[in-house]
Each structure stands twice: as structure tokens, then as C-alpha cells.
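Teaching note: in complex prediction, the entire set of molecules is handled at once rather than each chain in isolation. The prompt given to students was simply: 'Predict the structure of this complex.' The entities are:
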Amino acid sequence: MSRPGEWTRVRAILWKDLVTEWRTRTSFNAAAFLAALIVLLFGFALGPDRVTAGAVSAGVVWMTLLFAGVLTFNRAWEREIENGALEALVLYPGDVRSIFVGKVLANVVFLLAVGALVIVVAGILYGLPVREAGPLLVVVFVLGIVGFVTLGTFYAAMASRLRAREVLLPLLLFPMLVPLLLAAVEATAALLTGDLLGNAPQWIRLLIVFDVVFAVATYFAFEFVIEE
Amino acid sequence: MSAPHEPALALEGIARRFGRRWVLRGVDFTVARGSVVALCGRNGSGKTTLLRIISTALTATRGTGRAFGLDLARDRGAVRPLVGMLAHHAGLYDDLTASENLAFSLRMNGERTEPARVAQALEETGLRHDANESVRGFSAGMRRRLALARLLLRPPALLLLDEPYASFDMDGITLVNAFAARIAQKGGAVLVATHDVARGAAVLQRAVLLESGRLVPMDLAAALAAPAAINGDG
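The expected output is the structure of the full assembly:
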């Protein structure tokens, strides 16, 4: 993305995705409703014991985000496939990777909004000490979501031209997310339990490493995925 | 258009396979600068596939192609700014307005949004009064006009028109032909995939027929006189 004008293209994609989503709210409503429902159902499944719920809450929160994210990623590319817009996008002069960067940024915004909702609902239902966890919890969420979105947007682009993309995306994506999910869950759990052992910073550093690796790998591989 | 002696388009042995089916079996074809050429053939004869290969949306399974001397596969990044395509699917966003779609297109070209250029393109395509309407409510003809307006924002040197006369009223057809003539006059070239050469008679200079995956020359005057020949029936 060294050409002048590539950031204009990134901003154009970001603007277009946010404006269309704001007008239709199809992705956000579906993802937010699903996320709230999963958290609620886990609440029923785990029962009224707040100790049990608190112990597994970090895993529940991140698994909920994973399912909500898959909806978001699929929808992000479906919007382009409708009316042949994806081909038109690819044929614009310029680096096709700017499309990817714009999509990732838009998806990060969506999932941060969904993540905020999930943590609020989970905080109320499971009695999580969200305020006490403080700004570090926000850092963990942002880092986890950035890594998740980068990989999810990439695999959704890969699956976008396939007929069974809704089924294929989680099958391709989830195994690749295991290390990131582990780091995000451990960091969140450490912060929600007061981080008595001081483990959170290690997991946060690992999250940063995963984010960088995913961002670099997907950025350079995107061209081979999107070009027919 | 860096090599002035090179033709607008030169294809050699272009072949394309989808699964086991060969749609194109070796297309050899040259389009000179300043010309408007009709590409005819039956449904499923591979006209759209050929246009997509020229636009660099698809790669050929075999063969080479050059646009203004640039290799379609190797120099894809350099070819794209030179080529514009009016495709079957307009590639528009239903939840944006007509002017927002054009503004988006300008920015995707790496340019700044210029409301005056957007307004002029909408004016030229007869969509000025629909500038702030959501594309979702547009008819097929209006969508095609808007897709044409997008090309007007950045006129290509090689214009590819896929069934351009479908969905257009007479005004729209005149608009498409005038745009094609303008591109040719400026030293570019236009390739028109159509079943309806009569509607392009005002601008078409020659015609070729895509048959069994290969191109064969076609007598344009005869095609205009006997429309059945256009679809490979006669």
C-alpha cells in the first residue's frame, strides 16, 4: 500500500461498510442478538451459582464473540458479492490489499461494539468485576478482537466465492484461532479474578505477537485469495 | 497507453476452462486503437468470459493477451487503470444513494470526492434528480445508467461493454454509443459483446463471432441485414 491514494481507498471501504451497516443494521442486530442470547443461555445452563459462572465466564465471553464474529465476517463479503460488487472492487486500479485493510477496520468497529454489549450483559448476569478489571480488560478485548477479526476477515474472503461458505468459514477459522483464543481467555480470566499471580501481562504480550503475525501473514496473502 | 505503436488489444491463443468444460479454445484477436468492435455469439459462447479475461478479473488457462502492450496477467496492476467494463451486474451498493455510489467510486480510484464531477456524471446519464435516492429503489435501466456514470468519472482507454443495450431505453442506447464513440475518437478502443448489433450500428466498425470457443470474422453489414447471424444461427 505504498501508492498515494491507498489510504483514500481504505477509508472509502471503511466509510462504505459503516454507512451501509448503520442504515440497515443487519450484521450488528444479528450478531448482537445472537451474542446476548448465547450469554443468556449459558447463564441458564450454568445455574445461579455465581462462583461457577465467574470461573467459566472468560471462556463464555470469547466463545460468544467467536460465533457473533462469524456472522459479521460472512456478511461483510456477502455484501460485496451481491450485484457483482466484489469483482468491481477488485478491478479498481490500486492495491487490492487496501480492500482488506478497510474491511478489517470496519469489522473491528462492529465486533468492538458487540464485545462491549457482551461484556456488559455477562457482567450483569454472572456478576463479573468488570470495573475492577479496569483499562487492562479493554486492552485485552481490543487485542483479542483485532487478531480475531484479521484472521476472520481473511478466511471469510477465502470462503466468499464458495457455495457452502457459511459452513466452511468456522471449519477453516476456528482451528487457526486456538492459540489466540487461549491467550485472550487466559488474560481475561486473570483480570476478572484480580490477577493475583500477575499472569495477565504475559498473555497480553502473547496477544500482541499473535496480532502482528496474523496481520502480516494475512496482509501479504490476501492478493492470492481475492484474485480469481 | 505508454506504447503508441501497440494495438489496444492483442490476444493470442486465449483459452479458458471451467472444470472440465473449455469455454474458450484459442482466441486470436486484435483490436486497433480508435475502433469499436462487436463481439457476437450465442448464449454461453464465452463472450462474458472473454471480456472478464481482458478486464483482468479472470486469468486465461492458456494463451497471452496484451492491452496497449501490457501483459494482461503479468502487468495486471498497470492494465486495470486503462480498462473499464460495463458488466451484467452493475456492482453498485443498494444502501447507498446514487451520488454516494459515485463518490465511493472516485475514492476507490484513489481520488478525492469532487461533488461537481459526481453531479456532472449524474447529469450526463439523466440521473440528476435521483442523486440522493437509494439505489435499492432503482430500476434495471437506472442501475445501468449509474454504472455508466461510474465509467464517465474516469473514462477508460479500453472500454468493455457486456450486453450494453439490454435494459436501456433509446436515450440510454444513444448515451452508450456516444460514450463508445468518444473513447474511440480519443485513441482508445471499445469491445461490445452484444446480440443486438443493430442498436450499435451508429458506432460499430466491425464484428467478430465467437463460435465453438474461437473467434471468426463476421461481415458487419450482413449481420445488420440478417439478425439471425448475430447469434450464430445463420
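Point out the following to students. The mean pLDDT of chain A is 90. The CA atoms of residues 31 and 68 of chain A lie 5 Å apart.
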